[in-house]
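Reading a protein record of the kind used here takes only a little practice. Think of the row as the fold of the chain written in a discrete alphabet. A record is reproduced here so that you can trace the correspondence yourselves:
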Amino acid sequence: MSVSDAVRVTLRLPAPAARVWPKLTEPRHVAQWFGDLAGPLTVGEDNRLDFEDGDFFTLRPTRLVAGREVAFEWRFLGVGKRQRIVWTLEPAADGPGESVLTVDDHDATRTPAEAAQLREGWTDFLTRLATHLRTDRSARYALRDDIDGAVDLPTGPYRPLTYPALLDWLPVAEDGFRPAWFFVVDDEGPRRFALRDWDLLEDERLTFEVEIPEAPGAPSAEVTLTPVPDGLRLSFAHRGWTRLGLPDHRAQDLRRRFTATWVASLAAARARARAAAGPD
């Protein structure tokens, strides 16, 4: 891939490269500013970066140059488009006690708006790393407000945002007349949440709200279907998890359970689209 495919963010860090390197590669240090790695980074071996609120990346390192470079491929929520990430670490030319870290996040299919949002995200993460280096304290973010993700579907006859086809992959049940319940099913068992304000524009967009018992706020969901070069991108955003008016631990647990359900839903939509499209 070329640099033109990448979102690039560079930040000067208040520590020499020798001190920064473990913060990029060793699980106990990465956990202080980024997320929880399942194990040490090893080229060619699958790993997972978990954020404890339901969000995670599955990843595989492709290159490790001690003290200089970390390259890996990852998928958000394990189902998103594969992206190539390269971290390049260099000593600061005019500061012996400092270093410069550059992140290149490669994906040629992003829109300008997505690229701008990603640039903000990487800037935030690198700033958290700088804060951790200055204070030697955890700089991890708290509960994220949005649950969001996407999966790419092949071109074919399957139409995931038509009714009733969307009931094949989205965990929604009817009350006999209309979509009425959103189901979360995981190792804690099934639980249903009432729906309201259901609005479907077939093949384009679905919006609804999910009522959370004892919460004054109702997280709002938007599902969209947009063309991409090789097919269609099914995306969702479920917003409002920091504004539920519930204790943080309860809001985080709910967010985690809903995230797992959305991941399973995207995987189900992709499986049905692939089956409908037939052999390559």
In short: The radius of gyration is 21 Å. The chain has two domains: 3-135, 147-277. The chain is about 25% helix and 40% strand.
